[in-house]
Amino acid sequence: MKLPRKFDLICYNFDSINHLPNIKSLCSCFKAIRKHLSNNGYFLFDLSTLVALQTNWDRGLWIQDTDELYKIQSGIYLPAEKEVIAQLRKAGFKSIEYYSDMKFKNKLLVENIENHKRVFFIVKK
């Protein structure tokens, strides 16, 4: 898809990355996002880790049963977080930071990413 302009910020929230079907899709997604970012633009996204999926999801399913609703969600865990970082670099992103919370105060080291349930990425073109 070709958009008529570029953007300073692109957000891809709510574990959307976890729903891409394969590495090829992940790489294509990152390349398309980079293509539509302005020169100093930012790409923000979050990712549920394997720890989260093992803890919060049962075989890739999450079921919520309340008086108001019955909700079934399906989640696909893609690659390890290190593979996500590798695909970001392959897509041409240079500055990649990752945090354990949305306040962006607890910066993670790559070897510690898999110990957290969710990782928040700030990526700059």
Structure description:
This protein has 125 residues and is α+β, with helices and mostly antiparallel strands. Helix content is 24%, strand content 32%. It has helices at residues 23-35, 50-56, 81-90, and strands spanning 7-12, 37-48, 61-65, 70-74, 95-99, 118-124. It has a 4-stranded mixed beta sheet with strand order 1-2-6-5. A two-stranded antiparallel ribbon has the order 3-4. The radius of gyration is 15 Å and the shape is globular. The model has no long low-confidence stretch (mean pLDDT 79).
What would you say about this model in short?
With 125 residues, the protein is an alpha+beta fold. It has one domain: Vaccinia Virus protein VP39 (Rossmann fold), CATH 3.40.50. It has 3 helices and 6 strands; from the N terminus they run βαβαββαββ.
